[in-house]
Amino acid sequence: MARSTWGRPAGRPYMDCHKINLKMLKNRLIPVLLLRNGIIVQSRGFKRYQPLGNPVAMVRRLNVWTTDELIYLDISPGSVYDTGRDDHRDGNRSSLLGIIRDISDACFMPLTFGGRIRSIDDMRQYLSAGADKVTINTQAIANPEFISEGAKVFGAQCIVVSIDVKINDNGDYEVYTERGRVPTNLDPVKWAKEVEERGAGEIFLNSIDRDGTGKGYDLNLIKKVTDSVSIPMIVCGGVGEWAHFADGLKMGGVSAVAAANIFNYTEQSVYNAKKYLYENGFNIRKHALIDDTLRDKSSKNN
Amino acid sequence: MNNKRVVILDDGCSNVRSVFNAFRAFDSDVKITNAFNDIRDASHIVLPGVGAYAECKTGLCKFNLVELLQKEVIEKGKPFLGICVGMQALATLGKEFGEHQGLDWIAGIVDKIDTSKSKLRLPHVGWNELSIMKSNPLFEGIEPGTTFYFVHSFQFRPKDDSVVSSFCDYGVQVTASVQRDNIFGVQFHPEKSQSAGIRLLKNFTGIN
Predict the structure, then answer these.
(1) How many domains does the structure of chain A reveal?
(2) What DSSP designation does A27 have?
(3) What pLDDT, in 10s, does the model give residues A231-287?
(4) Which residues of A touch B126 (CB under 8 A)?
(5) Facing residue for A23 by CB, picked from B26, B122, B131
(6) What is the pTM of this model?
(7) What ipTM describes this predicted complex?
(8) Dist. CA A29–CA A244, nearest whole Å
């Protein structure tokens, strides 16, 4: 069973991780989908985007792979939404809420939605359209009180604060906002602590430098932030092979490992990623290929 | 074929649409409503809950539902399912953002999961395995070891342990489901727990 392409010695379970047979909370594996003007895209360095396809069809595929959870980010620069083709079976959708509703109808897994959330009303709209949690970034930095307000109305468990980090010219980690365009002078560790204090339920930590590179997570950054807070951490940015997920989980304290591109370009990606982690002894929900109940539901919808 | 009519109450801050979709997955007759007529005509009543404790109960009060539910569930004995905060609302008292009275259908309190010893992170988010304590029609056909999706920081601690039908482990025993007669509550989200969750909801609609 040589798995040389995964960059790990074959057949050696990780000794330092949890035993899988214990009854306990599983680590999550989370695909991230990026929506840009109605189309799913691939991102590199938060700057270059390549179109991949229809926003609902992707979700439907992930749904039948017993995916643990899904993060869906709207990174559109304007507010034009066009799923592109009227002849597609999912029809054309010109509004974001319409797209979220379609996604949620196809989605029997937890759905976190983010992108341009500026008010409690925005949150309410997305949640009632079918999101389970919302992730906020720019508005949380502009007005940190927004985090507490959201937690108070919807519960802390509902508010995921997304932190995008880049190494600046001085070689220090710095939080960026506005989809990686605007530096904030904030140190990620300090900001993470404040986010926790203000009542966020989870942190979604992203490395801008690693985004789309396939070089693996920025483990140094992950360790710093993870050790500084006691709310669950979802980490993202840089996964290019299954072993990178393992590296993230081995850090300890990481609750969920996320990635975008690798799930889009690999056949049966969730299945294979989970299989890899499960077989290497990680505390993860077992891989399963098709969930019959949900497949029935998907076909009934059309 | 059957005259099961499920109503999902809308407290104004929950993701009721997911719950609706999950019931639709097995073609049940289901409606999201707070209308008195619908609730009176229903055979099964579901109270989802995503929001904070106070907001959930406030929602019920806002729509003047408490008295009606009392009648339909306690007096008439219609099967009732509370999900997440909807289950916590069954308690006597909730301690999220201050103290708030619950429905008091199952005596107990709702307070923060104790992680002082385990040092585990809160909220408790993700897929966890249940230990099923007593046979319960909700869990029929659900295999041991099945995982369900949880997302919460507060847990229901009933006064009488015998109402706890399952728990999960998160450093301490966390109440995963409760039952007293026709009143059911689950802390996890069946509507987000894929096939096992849909099976559980289907089991619920099978209860008379």
Answers:
(1) 1
(2) B
(3) 999 999 999 999 999 999 998 899 999 999 898 877 788 999 999 999 999 999 988
(4) 25-28, 68-69, 232, 255-256
(5) B131
(6) 0.89
(7) 0.90
(8) 12
